[in-house]
DNA sequence: CATGAATGAGGCTTCATTCAT
DNA sequence: GATGAATGAAGCCTCATTCAT
């Protein structure tokens, strides 16, 4: 019944991500997206009836993946290390998140729901990081002379360190060293 | 009394910065800007004949300030410390820089010039950081088991660590500790 | 159990009427209609291959009912009274008729036919009213110092008098008095 | 300062009225309007930033005129007569009013204000009619065996009686007779 | 210079309608 | 027949930019 789909959500999300990374929120239109997908602009409206709905749905999807992976990370031997490796893999979340302030949060009820979900996920991320750090503080492997919030911010900010010429793995190793023991020789 | 309002270029830049910080590139319009300045939209065209010209001119201005301050920082006792303090003061440069990818660089010759200038200034920033780090490596106070680029990225990324509840000074102290010696207790 | 839903034409007309009364021509979409019927939008096209075809078919159907009832009314003791009672029952025809000007009459041959039929039915309505009035004029119970067209218009306009707090019957009685003997005490 | 206007509100209202009367709410677009006015579509947005704002502003303007004229009418020798004459002159208000249900009342704060104003004006119209009728009831020239609301509805509905081949004056005279003394000979 | 007016380009959305299963 | 998918045309709206005073 009905004819075969020419696009699916996976493709939609893939191209959405690419487009946002390349052109940011302002440059993200259904027009551009439809051209990349090779469908009519209006076709996309059959999937998401508002620009904001697609973007936020995608971002929720992305954050969910990250949070899921953080769970795994926190159970590893060296959770901080695992976290940094995760950052290496999802280097673009941070960039994606920067789009958030520009989203019209009242665009539709669906958008509102997604935005709420995003905040909760971010909350979860932050608290998972803190949990990891607290745990390590108790083992004496993380300093406690700096407020937890700042420590967490420090760990999260590492996601911003650009890849230079390294592989993802090299990047993670180098950054891990710095996060652990700083610039000092 | 009642004579035609004239635009004060200082105010122009101030409002430009505010507007970009509040709304990002997408939300930066001459319409909004003119309303804040209390002049007609078309008046701004007597100063900058293109949106991009204004934005890029402003960004060059901003970067020049930062670079100037970096010069001073690099001559201080503890240049890394001074740098972090600088980040505290210019916490928004990073956010400002994020609009760059969305600028149509071919918009006009003036824009092209400004964009070139910006790249050179960014270049300068990066190399100043590297110079500082190299200098410290020679004194043995900065590690050399991590590539210089990554070290520089690490220092720059600190600008992203959000203020929590601290003053600018507290923020700088805490972050400095982390940059210097990392998470380790 | 679970066999494909089929459209009931009676229901189709019912929902069409409701929708037009609630939302007017502008608010009448196959989208809304299909939702109310619980079928796919495209299914309606198996019955009416154009929006206009459905609307006009429905209106013909409605007018036919009214004309039929007018026949009965004109054979009653007091035909004017019966007419006003009829208006009470079909208070919405007038509202329905107001969508006519917006219909694209050339939309399809079927539409053209329906539109013609509608005009003939309206013609018939008008002339039935006139017949009734002429008959009464001959009995001396209706004035002849006002052109027949205006008299007919007067009777038809009564359909517009809104229900206030009365039942349909009360409305008809009150309006009948006014139509018969006017405002005068 | 600034260049000379090419359209003014008067023209805008005139063409708005014509367009609505010809094509109804659904057929009223800024595109059609701009074509008639010989300006670009976007120009109209400099005057009214939403379709609904223009329509409702116009309707308020129209009702205000009518209400003003009703004041004059109620002070005349035969207020009911004057009212019917007024209906002759503003035969289109009723048609215009039918557009109301389709207006998105939440379209903008300005729209909301206008809609409120419209309701108040309609309220005023109705109560002015009632005042007139009450006054006449006290003089014994209007019946009191029919509820006031119905009487008022009866008077208002007269606006719907179509012109046949008469002048405005003839129409008013004929309709006045009917309103006063009904169909009876 | 400052301004108010006009405009075009470009993005957003909604539907009627067609297609393939 | 019934359906879900795809589409194009049409209307909405917002700006950057230009023009004439």
TrEMBL record, chains A, B, C, D:
DNA-binding region listed in the record: 29-48
MF annotations from Gene Ontology: DNA-binding transcription factor activity; transcription cis-regulatory region binding
Keyword terms of this UniProt record: DNA-binding, Repressor, Transcription, Transcription regulation
Gene3D superfamilies (UniProt xref): Tetracycline Repressor, domain 2
Entry superkingdom: Bacteria
All copies of domain HTH tetR-type, residue ranges: 6-66
SUPFAM superfamilies, per the entry: Homeodomain-like
Record's keyword annotation contains Electron transport: no
InterPro entries, A to Z: Homeodomain-like_sf, HTH-type_TetR-like_transc_reg, HTH_TetR, TetR_SbtR-like_C
Name assigned to this protein: TetR/AcrR family transcriptional regulator
Record organism: Alkalicoccus luteus
